[in-house]
Amino acid sequence: MRIKNLIIPLFCLVTIHVQAQDNWLTKKQITEDVEFLTKTLNEKSSYAYLNGFDFNKDFEIYLTSLKDSTRLKNFGLFITNTLAKIADRHSALNGIRGYSLNESLFLPFVYAPVNDKVVVLNYDQDENLKILNPRFPYLKKIDGLDIDKFLQKTRPEDIKASKETYFTLAVRDIRDIQKNYILLDKALPKEIELTLSDAVLQNDTVLVVPVKDKSERQRPWDEKFERDYLFIKDEDFNQPENIAGLFSLDDNIAYIKLPEMVSKDEAPLLFEKVNSFMKSIQNDSEALIIDVRANGGGTRDLLYEFAKYLIHPDSIHIVNVVKQRGPLPLPKDYKESLHSRFLYSFSELDDREQKKATEFLKNFEPIYELDEAKYSEYYFGLLNGEKLSTEGLYYNKPIYILANEKTFSAASVFVSAFKGIPNIKIVGVTTDGSSGNSDWVDLPNSKLFGKISTMVSFQKDGKVLDGYGTTPDIKIERDMNQVLWQSDTQLEKLRALIKEK
């Protein structure tokens, strides 16, 4: 027994020592990881250097200032912050993984974005959201720091996101006070002073609150319609009970909710429902709403499924052009990856499509001119009505695509592709655009890993999706009732607008 009792503490000490070593990196290890990442970015990253940011300078300054060693989390934060400046949204939103800030302390209450302000919420006894202090609903300062300055520092990974996206994500993260104070490089006190203000931010009151441990934290704010589908997997959209509530026809306005851009292979039943519903509303509806708010993306399958009904049979539209970073000419696997996104080179188009592509390029002014020695020729995303359309089922009535700042990846491509198409209007707020054909990168010493994009994806107006998103034709923002889950104001306002027309 004595030997056994002696071995256990020794084993624990060794384990603790190994864990401690794992949480620290030597300067040599970091230097090797930075060199590996530099080489990877220079060889593979499609967005590196495009916006004028030179990550090499940040790496050089960091290594120069580094002492003999540093914590893994500090290195992880540095890499996260640096890569975010490249404006590669897939890299930023997926984040650099493999390190932890060991968060265990949180602010009480729920924080939500509304009209460029932060409203502080709580739950009533029936678990309904309510404004914490109706007289002073808005958060003005945290421990004396103006809320705008606070938010500017607490979501560095999204620093190049659209304004609307950054604000929403940063506001949701106010709860994570321990993480935020690490980012602010401030010691976290046991109590936090919240300055609450009135509707015009002129009259204030101060509330001092204790930080809470993990067991007492509240879930961050989400839209009600988002919360309903938050934990449903892609394959679950092949189940009738999860599909039924996505389709409706009310007051002659057809409505389709798309929580995810699922693939046809994973959810064939959803695609069957899309087709049957589109056929059923041909004569019974005055307009169609397709709702992709808070849709985090997936594949482009649904884009081309809807195009069968939304694109005139006699028309061809270039909706997206890309250039792929990689060995030239592109190997077979690169081409297959582009084809899986319905993207094709000029030589792969038919005569009519080539004519349309030639006309498009004459007026196309890309925001970035890409090095032909590093990037492929253009690959075209196009909607050819003759090939796509189902005879007699072109939907020639007004179509509205409702999007928001959490419409991401393939969902943002969906919005961008249909913008400017006859009969179609984009409604809501600017999307969190992204389309990068991402690849994984793993650092050898720290074991940090994350995604980097290898494809530059242009919208029809020449802007890239990443960092810009797609602006709406009709802007409709959420209001307080929507924040409190009392109504879906954006959808209701859109319905009213349709009825007026």
From TrEMBL:
<feature type="signal peptide">
    <location>
        <begin position="1"/>
        <end position="20"/>
    </location>
</feature>
<dbReference type="InterPro" id="IPR005151">
    <property type="entry name" value="Tail-specific_protease"/>
</dbReference>
<keyword id="KW-0732">Signal</keyword>
<dbReference type="InterPro" id="IPR029045">
    <property type="entry name" value="ClpP/crotonase-like_dom_sf"/>
</dbReference>
<dbReference type="Pfam" id="PF03572">
    <property type="entry name" value="Peptidase_S41"/>
</dbReference>
<protein>
    <submittedName>
        <fullName>Peptidase S41</fullName>
    </submittedName>
</protein>
<feature type="domain" description="Tail specific protease">
    <location>
        <begin position="189"/>
        <end position="477"/>
    </location>
</feature>
